[in-house]
Design a protein that fits this description.
Helix 3 packs antiparallel against helix 4. The chain is of the alpha+beta class. 18% of the residues are buried. It has 4 helices and 10 strands; from the N terminus they run H-E-E-H-E-E-E-E-H-H-E-E-E-E. It folds into 2 domains: 37 residues; 165 residues, Sandwich (Immunoglobulin-like), CATH 2.60.40.1150. The strands form 3 sheets. The protein has a 4-stranded antiparallel beta sheet, with no helix packed on it. Strands 6-5-9-10 form a 4-stranded antiparallel beta sheet, with no helix packed on it.
Length: 208
């Protein structure tokens, strides 16, 4: 009898050991899977000199969805078979550290990526880009053009920014084009004085 109990105890101990090993294997496998998922990171570049502090950050679509949702979100690429309708969004922050006013014109900023040269959409252009889609595509029948315009006007960088000393200006810069998924992208941001003379042209590069 005692021998059987000892034997049963050993079997139970062995089964418990197997269970622990099995659970450890599952936990290890899950942790390994987590490490293979695309990492969550922010692509951002900061430039500091005597006249400006410039920060440019690429905003991935998943972050735009978290912030604005999927409905009435003008910053995520529309449903389309055309790769040319892809949107790329950057957040530009700039502080004037100089002694006189600095000027940034949105239409002077340029993106070069995969052999494509693109200028950012201003608020009017981005709203016009979406308006026919809301009118014609069934995917957007529950979207509101007035809400869309409100989101655009609150977040997209101004067309013409006069930045006084010590003042920070920020907003989204939105490009559209047949951009590739990978490669080196370069954004050129010129700074002007009040008379329209270029003071400096900043070059910010990103690897995707």
């Amino acid at each position: 009898m005692k021998r059987n109990k000892i034997k049963d105890g050993r079997v139970k101990g062995f089964m418990v050991l197997l269970m622990i090993m099995f659970l450890s294997f599952i936990l290890y496998s899950c942790s390994s899977v987590k490490h293979t998922v695309k990492p969550q990171y922010k692509k951002e570049k900061i430039i500091l000199d005597d006249t400006v502090r410039l920060k440019l950050e690429f905003i991935p679509e998943e972050e735009l969805v978290r912030k604005f949702g999927r409905k009435n979100n003008p910053f995520i690429s529309p449903v389309s078979f055309l790769k040319s309708n892809r949107l790329m969004v950057f957040k530009l922050e700039i502080m004037n550290k100089g002694y006189s006013d600095s000027v940034i014109s949105l239409n002077k900023i340029e993106l070069q990526f995969g052999g494509i040269n693109a200028r950012p959409y201003n608020r009017f252009q981005l709203a016009n880009f979406w308006e026919p889609r809301l009118e014609r595509q069934p995917e957007y029948k529950k979207w509101s053009m007035s809400i869309l315009k409100n989101v655009i006007n609150k977040n997209v960088f101004d067309n013409h920014n006069v930045i006084q000393k010590g003042i920070n200006s920020e907003g989204y810069v939105v490009f559209k084009g047949p951009f590739p998924d990978y490669g080196r992208a370069v954004i050129f941001i010129p700074i002007f004085d009040g008379s329209g003379r270029m003071l400096k042209r900043y070059e910010v590069d990103f690897e995707f």
